[in-house]
Input
Amino acid sequence: MGKTTILACVTAALCLSAAAQAQNITITHARVLDGTGKVIENGHVVVRDGRVASVGAGMPAAGSAGPKARVIDAKGRTVMPGYIDAHRHVIKGNPAEWLDKRAAGELQAFLDAGFTTVLGAIDPPQLLEARKRITAGTLQGPRLFVGTMIPLAGMLPPAPPKPGAPQGFNDPARTDPARLPFGGPAAPAIPREVTLKMIDAAKAGGYDYLKTIMNATPGGPEIATQQFVVEEGRKRGMPTITHAVSVRDTLASLDSKPALLVHTPHIGDLGVDTAALKRIVDAHIPMTSTLQVFLPHFGPDGKPLFRDGGPFPFDTLSSAGQGPVNARHLWEAGLKNYGFGTDTQWPPKETLFDELRALSLVFSPAEIVTILTKNAGDATMHGTEIGTLEPGKFGDLVIVDGNPMVRTADLMNVVTTVKGGVVVFEKKTR
Output
């Protein structure tokens, strides 16, 4: 079964869920951002049977939403596509405990923040079970797509901990081997039959993507194994999404043509390596931002924290600048399929704030709207169904208080979230 068939099956299942619950909705008196760059002042959006039926200026034609349509007066607020996080880690802590006790609240938090679609890049099978419950209507949450890890090589001995490293905080980004000088021993190869068993298990388990991490070692097996994983995944309709955080490892990933690069390279300067810049852009592989990983996250007490909740490692702070600068170089050079992704486990609204803070360093408000919607939808490989407000696509949208085309911070002001024609969040007002 090919990639197109598999994605069509997933979409069909989601369609059945949406159709079973969908409302007919007409939104009027709205500033409409359709995600393609078009702005309609005083416009409308009609959602019928879970799908966008019409988008336009002024009032819709009478009865266009069908019988018993709910009318929402946006009162001049902005209507735009639902937000998409195309690289996230959803489950924290014990997966079984998460599913039983925390899933409902944490999945609702995505909807409250405006996220109607989330790609869990590496998540356990409990997220697949949560997706089944969402599809069945017994749990409310965003549209979920899920990946699982396929290693490219065996393990080398771990690097010694950094002097003064905090106890109990073991996020691999603290000691990322991509930061080390290129050298040392080759990583051991994994037999092809073992890799095939992992791929087949991922397919049987219901995963959507294969996730690889490219940390190429001198003379190591990573590049050849990546090619093998991409080819075998493609045969099974499972796109490969690849972690590469240095310019060197990004280049090492290109020839295998993964479906998505899930990080902006933040180690290496694309401003001085024009040949590398051109190669990455010419590969036409979508990329997600994930710029916030190396920016401090500030908790309630104002202390700077890393992604694992421990003290922020300020020896990584150069990446906080290099990532956004490389992102802008890529954009200016023509990489327009650059989408929103966070690679984090902070609560969704805090995650949104942090990634917008990073993106705002180098992108305009209008560009960020596209990155958060259309481009992120394309990064999930479901851009024909989500990411823009166009007739026939899922009725996934948010109503925002303010104008995000002028002020990026207004993206935080979600007052209503609609997923597949169902109002799944409404901010309480006095």
Q: What stands out?
A: The longest helix spans residues 3-21.
